[in-house]
Design brief:
The protein is α+β, with helices and mostly antiparallel strands and about 160 residues long. The chain is built from four helices and eight strands. It has one domain. The longest helix has 21 residues.
């Protein structure tokens, strides 16, 4: 039987007005995820992927091209699932990847003291100042990985 999530999320319209959209996410028996979002005008967007995060990113592309911005953690440019989150939770829990190695270290230490990373649910609210497009999220991730690997390579 497929798992299903139903959420109400905030979306910023191209005119800057907030709207509430309904989201339904289904984990198919095949392991694929399908996400469907509908706005107040009954327009429907869909996306699918190997986990919830990838399916949500696929869904976001068309509305974002029209100027919509999703005000959720999954649309923050600095959020990304860990491999463990993808494997065990279907990519529903994300971590925030800070720009600064110092902030990254502090976040990791705090997570270690709590014995887990500070995961955030993909559809939790996020401020408009922190969200971006799929392309901006990809660029941030690429830069973060370059910095993190470079930082690790410089360590003795």
């Amino acid at each position: 039987m497929a798992d299903e999530l139903r959420e109400e999320i905030s979306v910023l319209t191209p005119h800057g007005d907030p709207e509430t959209w309904s989201v339904v996410a289904v984990a198919e028996d095949s392991g694929e995820w399908r996400v469907e979002a509908s706005d107040k005008n009954r327009r429907v967007w869909t996306g699918s992927g190997s986990d919830l995060f990838d399916a949500f990113r696929a869904l976001r592309e068309n509305p974002e091209a029209q100027g919509f911005r999703f005000l959720v953690v999954g649309a923050r440019i600095d959020s990304w699932p860990t491999q463990m989150s993808r494997q065990m939770g279907g990519g529903a829990e994300l971590v925030i990847r800070y720009r600064s190695p110092t902030l990254m270290l502090i976040s990791n230490l705090l997570g270690y003291l709590r014995l887990r990373l500070p995961y955030r649910y993909i559809f939790s609210p996020a401020p408009a100042s922190k969200v971006g497009t799929v392309a901006e999220q990809d660029a941030y991730q690429e830069e973060w990985l370059r910095r993190a690997v470079g930082f690790a390579e410089r360590r003795p």
